[in-house]
Amino acid sequence: MPEARAAIAAPRPAQAAALRASPQARRLWLLAAAAVACIAAFMTLGAQGGWSFILPFRGGKLLAMLAVAYAVAVSSVLFQTITHNRILTPAIMGFDALYLLIQALVVYVFGQAAVATGHPVAAFLLEVGVMTAFACLLFRWLFADAVRSLHLMMLVGIIFGLLFRSLSSFVIRLIDPNEFLVLQDRMFANFNSVRLELLPVALAVMGAVSLMLWRMRSRYDVLALGRDIAVNLGVDYRRTLLATLAAIAALVSVSTALVGPVTFFGLLVSNLAYQLMGSDRHRHALPAAMLLAVVFLVGGQTLLERVLRLNTTVSVVIEFLGGIVFLTLILRRGRR
């Protein structure tokens, strides 16, 4: 109690200095240093030739990885905040399965030649629009009852995910084997084949969504306390929840349409951020999750490409680690 009174009575400069010296701040600085080191290693390690070619080539891949890291980390942490469950991620809503179904239908209906010669920006906007519209319609339909709709939403999301996977498997069986090779490349996240012309559109969408989330940043710690407490503290629970879910849908749609599905990546970085920070506050968890996502993506890609010289995509390794974390959390929850 004396320490708490002294902290309250301390002037603002002293409080700011205490905040900078907190364990969470020191860990964030260490994560930031690790992320910068991974970025520097990715850009410089094994660089041969002129920098006029290296900087645009590697810089485009780096920008795509940073965008995906940001989108996945923010959407996963906020989704776990509003669902009050650290095992759930937006992938539970069937986004990955819907993306695969869209890709399979496009290849089956239009063929390999149309996919190769089609306008990439139009296809990207179509994929993002379909996935975001599906999520928003689902959320608006389910939130007729704000008390039990969250559990209903997760259950319906699982059912839709199974439906989309079954439909995509059926369409894949109808596709010509030669055309299936084109689809197979899109079934896994691949940062080596990112179309750079899509990055400005993706960054513009993410920027607009981030601006909306920034304006609501002070409400998320209150939302984490539960619906009743948030309503009693004056938060417009339904409006904030729907806006956050729409923002999450847009972020996940952009990330998935840009590089492909990464199912367990958000689960991995969000839970590691909680454990490392030792705090549920979003001022700590969100930056930690974003920095961890950068370390895993950029550092993992550098390790595989530059050090081990393997052709394996980093998403396969990340999905493996994320699956282990998912099983660990499930077993811990079962023991409790």
Q: What is the overall pLDDT average?
A: 77
Q: Report the portion of residues in β strands.
A: under 5%
Relative helix content? over 70%
SSE order, one letter for each helix or strand: HHHHHHHHHHHHHHH
Q: Structural class given helices, strands, pairing?
A: mainly alpha
- What characteristic shape results from the CA principal axes? globular
Count of helical regions:
15
**How large, in whole angstroms, is the Cα Rg?**
21 Å
Give the termini distance in whole angstroms.
33 Å
Q: Low-confidence stretches at least 5 residues in length (pLDDT < 50)?
A: 1-11
Secondary structure: number of strands: 0
Largest sheet: none
Descriptive tags:
15 helices, disordered N terminus, single chain, 336 residues
What order do the helices and strands come in, and which of them pair?
Layout lengths: L1 H8 L2 H9 L2 H22 L6 H33 L11 H23 L2 H23 L6 H26 L2 H9 L13 H17 L4 H4 L3 H6 L4 H23 L5 H13 L4 H26 L6 H22 L1
What does it look like?
The chain contains 15 helices and no strands. The protein is mainly α. It starts with a helix and ends with a helix. 36% of the residues are buried.
How would you briefly describe this protein structure?
The protein is an all-alpha fold and 336 residues long. It has 15 helices and no strands.
